[in-house]
Amino acid sequence: MFRPMLGEAWHAMGANRLRTFLTMLGMVIGVGAVVLMMAIGQGAQEQIKASISSLGSNLFIVIAGAPMSSGVRAGGGSAVTLTVEDAHAIEELDGVINVAPINRSSAQLVYGGRNWNTNVLGTTPAYFEVNTWDLSNGYIFSHADLNGGRRVVVIGKVVADNLFEDVDPAGKTIRINQSPFIVLGVLREKGQSMDGRNQDDTVIIPVTSMQQHLLGGGLSSRLRMIMVQSESAEMMPLVETQINSLLRQRHRIREGIPNDFFINNLTATLDTAVETTRTMALLLGAIASISLLVGGIGIMNIMLVSVTERTREIGIRMAIGARKQDILLQFLLEAIMISIIGCLIGLLIGIAGAVLINQITQTTVVITGYSAITAFSVAAAVGIFFGFYPARKAARLHPIEALRFQ
Hints:
It is a single chain. This protein is α+β, with helices and mostly antiparallel strands. It has two domains: 2-51 and 272-404, no CATH class; 82-250, no CATH class. Helix content is 55%, strand content 19%. The chain has 13 helices and 14 strands. The protein has a six-stranded mixed barrel. The longest helix is centred in the C-terminal third of the chain and has 44 residues, at 266-309.
């Protein structure tokens, strides 16, 4: 009995193709918009996760500079308040497994007839482990290079492409602000950081080499930041407290005076950023879902028109033995079929739109089974909900009155 009803529903839809298409259109647009918005929102979450994860796990970044001057507190990075000795002291704390002191500057690089301006980062071998950053070829500088202040450098892919093109950079000598440095290797491509900076457009040298050859005066032992890696996520609160107490003691900051440094917990930053993008994704999905509601109202209106047009047909069906539940099921099946077919088309359009956006704008989009199933289920439920009232109205018609209807 169910199969003939499906056939009747399909026939009724085919009898008015344009009207059926226009009825489906609301569902098509609604599901397509929901899938697309959820894909963009999920993509934003994944991009943020990848960007922060590229820095490593269980990390703190201690940023120099927040001094008081005439009662006015300056911003982070406005003064160089951290030292190499601070980094060595942090290494001795419980729960700390890696510490990477960092100094950063810009410099002009020269190789042969080519030159390139980029960021120069002075650090220790621990930096590569903290950031889980491997080399595509060559090797990183060693602790012997660090202790000896040797002029060695590891370069990013962008620098390699601009200075060397197809030549293997390993073993070549480049000049950084007129000082010769030997290239040890090329870093694996990493892409953009959260602040939009291209991480591959950089060169990394031992921090001692930077102090001796690129920095001068009182800045030689000063640091812009220190990266600290905790042995586990559970140890992070303890490590943060220890770092705060240690640096306040070393910098002789009295009680009640603000810190002259900032401690950023990257795990907390990740959680906050992901939660923010999740909220935005839900908001985008909710806005897109309004079109599903409009589509449901369209289904209800068209089904009401269909009930009116087929009143005599309903009366004949009832006169020859059709029960109320049969009439109810017949019209409900029509509403469900319109909704489901519209959902499928909308799903395909949403996926195609997400792929197109990814290809054109290189924006990260992630289409998950969960988002597709959710959009499909909600749309089908909307169709059933709004199709029930017209179906119920058809089932409650009196056979005699239906046959008399003109």
